[in-house]
Amino acid sequence: MKSTLKKVFGQGIFYTGWGNALECLVLAVAVYFVSQIYTLLNHGPAILNLHTALDSAIPVIPIFVIPYNSLQPYIYATLLLFLLFRTKDFQAAALTMIAVWFVSYAFYYFLQTEVVRPVLTSTDTFSKMVMAVYAGDHPFNDFPSLHTSLSTIMAIYWVKVNKTLGIILSVWTALIVAATLFIKQHYIADVVLGLLLAFGFSALFSHLILPKKQKA
Q1: Fewer CB within 10 Å of terminal CB in the chain, N or C?
Q2: Predicted model pTM
Q3: What does the alpha-carbon distance between residue 10 and residue 17 come to, in Å, rounded to a whole number?
Q4: Neighbours of 132 (CB within 10 A)
């Protein structure tokens, strides 16, 4: 039984030593507290307007609120599974997230932007869910898109852990990214920078932390 558990959890927090476990717990706490800074910066005035004609051409598709709202469960489930089964992936993903947060916060503080949201008049369930998103989140902290960067980070590390599952989750991640545009929470520029940050910092921390065979 013990050998079976070690085979399953061997790279997880319970089998990789106290030092490694402590590092993971410190990172878990850091992820939580760094994420809370978002609310402190989510206010105006906006300095930049990144709206383009292409943004105007993108329709509102309320059903995309489903993948949009899935971001937090997606992150929590991913980090928990990495913590239990693959601590190095947890550490790399956590550091990537923290780095992306701080770069994003610098933009929010010095170059705040605002997205002008549409007035929704439909009374269907998905439209009401979109209106609830609007009510719970001020229209600032947009450039770069954290929904884009954080979901992409999850997909990148899942591909490294398990290619098949990673591809499946990458499809869901693509829906989350698309949702930021289809429910008018972000502009195209926000998404582009979010993707650049996710791929750039993931490459950096993968190189620094993950075993060589996992970096590709």
Answers
A1: N
A2: 0.93
A3: 10
A4: 12
